[in-house]
Amino acid sequence: MRLFVKLIFTYAIIGVSLNAEASCDFQIAVGDNLQFSQDKLVASKACGTVTIRLKHEGKLSKNMMGHNWVLTRSKDVSAVATDGMSAGLNNQYVKVGDSRVIAFSKMIGGGEETSVSFDIGSLSTSEEYIFFCSFPGHFYAMRGIFEVV
Fold first, then answer.
1. How distant is the alpha carbon of residue 69 from its chain centre?
2. How far apart are CA 118 and CA 102, in angstroms?
3. CB-based contacts of 60: which residues, under 8 Å, 6+ apart?
4. What confidence tier does 83 reach under pLDDT thresholds 50, 70, 90?
5. Whole-number Cα distances in Å, 16 to 8, 10, 19, 50, 55
6. Which of 39, 54, 75, 78 could hold 144 in an S-S bridge, CB 3.0 to 4.6 Å?
7. Would 12 be classed as within a structural domain?
8. Domain span at residue 37?
9. Which of 102, 97, 98, 91 is nearest to 130 (CA)?
10. Average pLDDT over the chain, rounded to whole?
11. Which pLDDT belongs to residue 22?
């Protein structure tokens, strides 16, 4: 216990942040509802690369209740989601070549899993990022905060 307290004190003195929530790898579950299992992800900039693993625990197919994971700046969420609707299921409901999209996974249905890995080196610790599902109509409810520390 003393060693632990001493380590925390030492880190505090030299200015190293200890954030127990920060991670490089995230597991997120979704189902036949409009909800991610987590509504906030905190990624350490030191990771370089972050991986999101998405599992659809529901039963409905991706054309009925599909889900994906899309990351963008908070100011771009509505426009990216709206443009994605016309992109269609074959494009994961993400407009092809959309520069506002930082990362996205493929669309999955019940019982399926997917993952996406991306570099966070260019993301800012002072910018606000949002992750959401781009299946038509889902982005209003299925969203969360992606924080870079």
1. 6
2. 8
3. 32, 109, 110
4. very high
5. 9, 9, 9, 21, 34
6. 39
7. no
8. 20-148
9. 102
10. 88
11. 82
What is the token pair recorded at 72?
């963008």
Contact between 114 and 52 under an 8 Å Cβ cutoff? The reply is: no
pLDDT of residue 104: 98
* Domain harbouring 49, CATH code: 2.60.40.420
Report the DSSP beta bridge partners of residue 118.
Answer: 50
CA-to-CA distance for 93 and 129, rounded, in angstroms?
Answer: 19
Assigned domain for 134 exists: yes
130, 143 contact by CB (below 8 A): yes
Number of domains in the chain: 1
In a domain, 1, yes or no: no
Choose between 34 and 8: higher pLDDT.
34
Beta strands in the chain (DSSP E): 25-30, 40-43, 49-56, 70-73, 101-104, 113-119, 129-132, 143-148
Give a yes or no: residue 8 inside a domain.
no
